[in-house]
């Protein structure tokens, strides 16, 4: 049993406790109950008070003996006998149940509205009759004086089925496009229906005429509420002859007096979820409203919160057991929750022992995993060295891992890491030491880079925090803790150079501004202490003083800037003189450079020409190449252009060609001279 307390109201969750895996056999469950004390002490108020998957609706018969619930899957209804504290019967249905109503004092007459437009009647022995309505239904109510069933749903009509005559009667034509919920007042039998447009239409069943219209969507919008879209009606409940509570799809509950079109009170759940259920508790004048996330109990006169509950799973329906403090919920989970709140009333007669138990119960947190089993993944098994157990009876496959006995897990963990306890102990000791250190006076740790700037920012932040505390303002974020400026105090490249020209010119102005800010803070603190902030004359005097001070400050920092400029000029002159002296002292000496083998010396003019040529456009370069003869552009017969290029030869190739050319010329001259000598010799022989 789990105990929670909110606003000094104790809430006992009777369905909380250790949960056993579904795949365990009954024999193993009984063995666990014998061995484990906590499981044996678990309170199971009603045996097997659950559904296979989800429970959607839950109701109590008028005699209080039977609790009926519907859910899935498969669609079914279960009836629990409170006198026997167990399930009486279970009936499966053809389709899911939207809602149902118990017409008799016990379970002998039940009507089910199903999602397939079917209306199914059950008697004490089981299924009795089944019919169908023209449109999909969403809710229905039973009118006892005339034995009529009023069905509302995805239609503008309200269908009437008379159970005495066994036939459909003329339907009621409404102005709404669709209707979500309906209810009949138990005193004067006024029929009310909530529409998708956010309106409530009230009809008189005797005359079959509409007698009232409430625009709840407009009334639900207040200054504090934020609504997206048009609110529709999702819940409706009468209280007595004159009061009616309306729940909207945006999470507001409106309490009306039927004599007025304005709501008495508007309560917002602040979750933006549709209101699922509304119940009235008359002993303490409370309204119990629930959406899918939270159940709130609040005073219907003042709207003050009495207490609230947030179950682990989403809520589908809430049922308050009559004249008691027991509350039951249908959830998006197999187990249906049972809560006992002693402040609301005593325990029911069939479980009066709860009053004695609640006095001795202690808080026991509900665990979300199986306490006797540990869920491990395949990676965890490999780390523990238990991968060889996969497929054995010691591991039970479940989803993406396995269930294993918690004792085996602890033993394997101790063997895999025997020093885990020592590490845990050291960590705890370190945490304790840090907690004691936090109570001491902490020194300010300055960063390595820009220490003076960081110290200045810390001092300014301390002054601003003191001033903001007095004025009750929010503190601005610190630049030292901001990630955007973190590098400025870590990277040495961002170090402020105090000898630079820019810093020396700006430093007087910055220092004067900081001094001015400090003076202003002191003046404001003095004004706050004297209580003269809202008076006009002192403010005028302060502004005059500030203007005079600002003029003096401006004169002061202007003079400082002038002094700094003079100093900078003098330093520049000294630097120039030193450079001239160094130039005069140094003698220019010729320097010789050696060219490596295989390389040729190229003049600087060639590189300059190449750079100039690269800067020119393609057209200019083509014209220059055409003049030099390395490029020839001609027209073809087809009409296109043909360009031929002559590649430039290297210096070595050019010298080789010149040498070959010179060698050829020398050979030609030698041949000519030899032929000339032969001819002269031949002539001389002839003369002889």
UniProtKB/TrEMBL annotation:
Location, primary (coarse class): nucleus
Localization per record: Nucleus, Nucleolus
Ranges where the NUC153 domain occurs: 482-508
GO CC terms, sorted: 90S preribosome; small-subunit processome
Domain Nucleolar protein 10-like N-terminal: from-to ranges: 1-364
Region (Disordered): 528-557, 639-688
Annotated TM spans: none
Compositionally biased region (Basic and acidic residues): 648-663
A single BP term in Gene Ontology: maturation of SSU-rRNA from tricistronic rRNA transcript (SSU-rRNA, 5.8S rRNA, LSU-rRNA)
Annotated coiled-coil segments of the chain: none
Biased composition (Basic residues): 664-688
Keywords linked to the UniProt accession: Coiled coil, Nucleus, Repeat, WD repeat
Pfam families (alphabetical): Beta-prop_NOL10_N, NOL10_2nd, NUC153
Keyword Lipoprotein: no
Domain Nucleolar protein 10-like second, chain residue ranges per copy: 369-417
Compositional bias annotation for Acidic residues: 528-538
Annotated family: Belongs to the WD repeat NOL10/ENP2 family.
Listed PANTHER family: NUCLEOLAR PROTEIN 10 (PTHR14927:SF0)
The protein's name in its UniProt record: Nucleolar protein 10
Organism lineage: Eukaryota, Metazoa, Chordata, Craniata, Vertebrata
């Amino acid at each position: 049993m789990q105990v929670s307390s909110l606003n000094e109201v104790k809430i006992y969750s009777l369905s909380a406790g250790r949960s056993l895996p579904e795949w365990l056999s009954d024999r193993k469950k009984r063995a666990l109950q014998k061995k484990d004390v906590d499981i044996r002490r678990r309170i199971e108020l009603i045996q097997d008070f659950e559904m296979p998957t989800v429970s959607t609706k839950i109701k109590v018969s008028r005699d209080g003996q039977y609790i009926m619930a519907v859910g899935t899957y498969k669609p079914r209804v279960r009836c629990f006998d409170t006198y026997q504290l167990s399930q009486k019967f279970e009936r499966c249905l053809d389709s899911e149940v939207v809602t149902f109503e118990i017409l008799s004092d016990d379970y002998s007459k039940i009507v089910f509205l199903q999602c397939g437009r079917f209306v199914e009647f059950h008697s004490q022995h089981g299924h009795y009759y089944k019919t169908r309505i023209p449109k999909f239904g969403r809710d229905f109510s039973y009118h006892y004086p005339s034995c009529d069933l009023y069905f509302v749903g995805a239609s503008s009509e309200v269908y009437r089925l008379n159970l005495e005559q066994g036939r459909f009667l003329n339907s009621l034509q409404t102005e709404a496009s669709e209707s979500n919920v309906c209810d009949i007042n138990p005193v004067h039998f006024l029929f009310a229906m909530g529409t998708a447009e956010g309106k409530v239409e009230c009809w008189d069943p005797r005359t079959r005429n509409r007698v009232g219209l409430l625009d709840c969507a407009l009334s639900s919008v207040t200054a504090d509420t934020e609504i997206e879209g048009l609110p529709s009606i999702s819940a409706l409940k009468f209280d007595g002859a004159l009061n009616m509570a309306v729940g909207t799809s945006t999470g507001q509950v409106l309490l009306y007096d039927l004599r007025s079109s304005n709501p008495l009170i508007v309560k917002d759940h602040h979750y933006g979820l549709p209101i699922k259920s509304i119940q009235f508790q008359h002993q303490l004048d409370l309204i119990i409203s629930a959406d899918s996330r939270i159940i709130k109990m609040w005073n219907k006169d003042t709207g003050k919160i009495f207490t609230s509950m947030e179950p682990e799973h989403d809520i589908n329906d809430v049922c308050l057991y009559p004249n008691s403090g027991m509350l039951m919920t249908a959830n998006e989970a197999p187990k249906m929750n049972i809560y006992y709140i002693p402040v609301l009333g005593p325990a029911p007669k069939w479980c009066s022992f709860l009053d004695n138990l609640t006095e001795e119960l202690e808080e026991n947190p509900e665990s979300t995993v199986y306490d006797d089993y540990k869920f491990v993944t395949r990676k965890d098994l490999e780390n523990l060295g238990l991968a060889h157990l996969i497929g054995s009876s010691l591991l039970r496959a479940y989803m993406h891992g396995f269930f294993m006995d918690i004792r085996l897990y602890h033993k394997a963990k101790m063997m895999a890491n025997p020093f885990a306890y020592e590490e845990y102990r050291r960590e705890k000791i370190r945490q304790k030491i840090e907690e004691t250190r936090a109570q001491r006076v902490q020194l300010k740790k300055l960063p390595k880079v820009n220490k003076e700037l960081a110290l200045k920012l810390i001092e300014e932040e301390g002054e601003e925090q003191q001033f903001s505390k007095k004025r009750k303002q929010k503190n601005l974020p610190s630049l030292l803790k901001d990630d955007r400026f973190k590098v400025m105090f870590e990277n040495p490249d961002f170090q402020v150079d105090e000898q630079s020209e820019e810093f020396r010119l700006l430093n007087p102005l910055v220092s004067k501004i900081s001094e001015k800010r400090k003076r202003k803070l002191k003046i404001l603190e003095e004004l706050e202490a004297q209580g003269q902030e809202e008076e006009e004359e002192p403010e005028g005097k302060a502004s005059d003083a500030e203007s005079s001070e600002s003029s003096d400050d401006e004169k002061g920092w202007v003079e400082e800037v002038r002094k700094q400029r003079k100093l900078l000029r003098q330093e520049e002159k000294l630097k120039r003189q030193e450079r001239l002296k160094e130039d005069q002292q140094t003698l220019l000496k010729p320097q010789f450079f050696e060219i490596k083998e295989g390389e040729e010396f190229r003049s600087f003019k060639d590189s300059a020409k190449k750079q100039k040529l690269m800067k020119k456009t393609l057209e200019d370069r083509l014209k220059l190449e055409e003049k030099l003869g390395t490029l020839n552009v001609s027209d073809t017969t087809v009409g296109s252009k043909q360009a031929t290029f002559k590649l430039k030869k290297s210096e070595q190739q050019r010298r080789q060609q010149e040498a070959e050319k010179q060698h050829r010329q020398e050979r030609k001259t030698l041949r000519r001279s030899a032929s000339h000598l032969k001819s002269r010799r031949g002539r001389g022989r002839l003369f002889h």
